[in-house]
């Protein structure tokens, strides 16, 4: 027997799924798959095994589940298993799991354990050999992370206290009582908003977490509740809709969602329809040099998934402007992970075809940190980073609006003011600047390099919690 256990990281959304099985028995399971499911079939071919089981630890809120997509691609060899603890229901075919259910893959055994708190139905999976009584590992889902813990506030204020108490009990009565040697395999890594300040490592041990994870060290409920409340990151706007979609059952494509190629004329017709949104996936400097009016700049990086989730409704009709035609599948996959599949097409030939057709383009001014510093008072620096980033230091005299809240709070800004938008490195700044420009702000500038460039140039930094 050779154990197969491989974490698979979806960058951007910082989601981790797992491929686990026994290659001598020729069978394997996938836990918490993402929608671009080909990677699991590739792993199955690599290890010479068949995927027979697809498990969900809970109803996900931060990304589109790929469980149904994967089962469909397995063409009858796999079944989908979900928790029905706390009377959880689903609008799609599934196999039900409750605490104590066991599954064997050759010499590998998984045993379900109800670990509520992040969600009511949440399950973790203890890992052991089939002839071993003691687990050596546990798939923790979104209940326990490296250096962190799952958040209990995603089902609304009326459920938060109940789930916080359940999460505290899960920590004290289950995880803290596991052996120090037990390895934890969480569903998220650093960068996810499903828990506060998740650590950089992909796995840990119960012993290490007992010593270093602040949430495992708290033994009094009221202190635990306060720590959870005080450290909770903002709730991304797409989470409630994504949870509903994952209960209903995401659409099965059997491949990457199709997107048709559009001529300049066809693209122009589509963009003039109500509510159609243009996403320009080029680098911020290319976007700044010239783009289609009304486009949002979300560069082709993994983090595109997250900000599309925050800022774009999953039902929105989307047009794409790509860096290159070869980037289509990558961009579509990143959008698919947070539920965006209503694609109306992409511009064939990209911006080159648009500009050669004599169509209008507009610019977004790019302002260096040196120009900003030399013209103090002429520009209002606008910081769109998270609260903690802002509190740890920012450009003097800046205003602060977190990017995820910019659509709701931009009315506080003067549309005639010269704005210099910055973030940590420039990616979020360009999204924010393009959003402001789309909403009619005339004097918007984005700052390439942003706060990293400001610090590298040894320019003055201000520290305070409020503007």
Automatic annotation (TrEMBL):
Residue ranges of every copy of the Rhodanese domain listed in the record: 272-363, 375-463
Keyword Protein biosynthesis: no
Descriptive protein name: Rhodanese-like domain-containing protein
Keyword Flavoprotein: no
Highest taxon listed in the record's lineage: Bacteria
Pfam families: Lactamase_B, Rhodanese
Keywords: Metal-binding
């Amino acid at each position: 027997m050779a154990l197969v256990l491989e974490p698979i990281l979806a960058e951007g959304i910082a989601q981790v799924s797992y491929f686990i099985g026994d290659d001598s028995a020729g069978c394997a399971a996938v836990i918490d798959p993402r929608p671009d499911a080909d990677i699991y079939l590739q792993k199955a071919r690599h290890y010479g095994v068949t995927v027979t089981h697809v498990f969900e630890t809970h109803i996900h809120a931060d990304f589109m589940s790929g469980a149904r997509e994967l089962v469909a691609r397995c063409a009858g060899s796999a079944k989908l298993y979900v928790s029905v603890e706390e009377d959880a229901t689903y609008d799609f075919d599934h196999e039900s799991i409750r605490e104590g259910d066991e599954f064997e893959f050759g010499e590998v055994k998984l045993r379900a354990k109800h670990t509520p708190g992040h969600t009511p139905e949440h399950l973790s999976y203890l890992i052991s050999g089939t002839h071993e009584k003691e687990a050596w590992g546990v798939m923790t889902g979104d209940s326990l992370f490296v250096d962190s813990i799952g958040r209990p506030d995603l089902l609304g204020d009326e459920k938060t206290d109940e789930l916080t108490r359940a999460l505290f009990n899960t920590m004290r009565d289950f995880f803290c009582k596991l052996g120090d040697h037990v390895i934890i395999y969480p569903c998220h890594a650093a960068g996810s908003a499903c828990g506060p300040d998740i650590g950089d490592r992909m796995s840990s041990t119960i012993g290490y977490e007992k010593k270093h994870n602040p949430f495992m060290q708290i033994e009094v409920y009221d202190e635990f509740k306060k720590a959870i409340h005080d450290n909770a990151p903002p709730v991304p706007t797409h989470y409630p809709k994504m949870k509903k979609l994952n209960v209903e059952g995401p659409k099965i494509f059997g491949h990457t969602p199709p997107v048709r190629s559009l001529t300049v004329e066809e693209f122009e017709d589509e963009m003039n329809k109500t509510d159609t949104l243009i996403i320009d996936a080029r680098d911020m400097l290319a976007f700044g040099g010239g783009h289609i009016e009304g486009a949002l700049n979300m560069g082709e990086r993994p983090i595109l998934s997250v900000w599309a989730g925050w800022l774009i409704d999953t039902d929105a009709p989307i047009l794409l402007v790509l860096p290159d035609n070869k980037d289509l599948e990558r961009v579509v996959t990143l959008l698919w992970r947070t539920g965006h599949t209503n694609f109306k097409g992409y511009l064939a030939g990209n911006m080159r075809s648009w500009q050669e057709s004599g169509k209008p383009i507009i610019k977004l001014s790019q302002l260096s940190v040196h120009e900003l510093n030399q013209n103090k008072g002429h520009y209002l620096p606008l910081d769109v980073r998270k609260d903690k980033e802002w509190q740890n230091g920012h450009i003097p005299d800046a205003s602060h609006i977190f990017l995820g809240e910019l659509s709701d709070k931009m009315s506080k800004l003067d549309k005639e003011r010269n704005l210099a938008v910055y973030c940590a490195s420039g990616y979020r700044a360009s999204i924010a600047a393009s959003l402001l420009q789309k909403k009619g702000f005339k004097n918007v500038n984005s700052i390439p390099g942003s706060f990293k460039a400001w610090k590298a140039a040894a320019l003055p930094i201000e520290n305070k919690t409020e503007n």
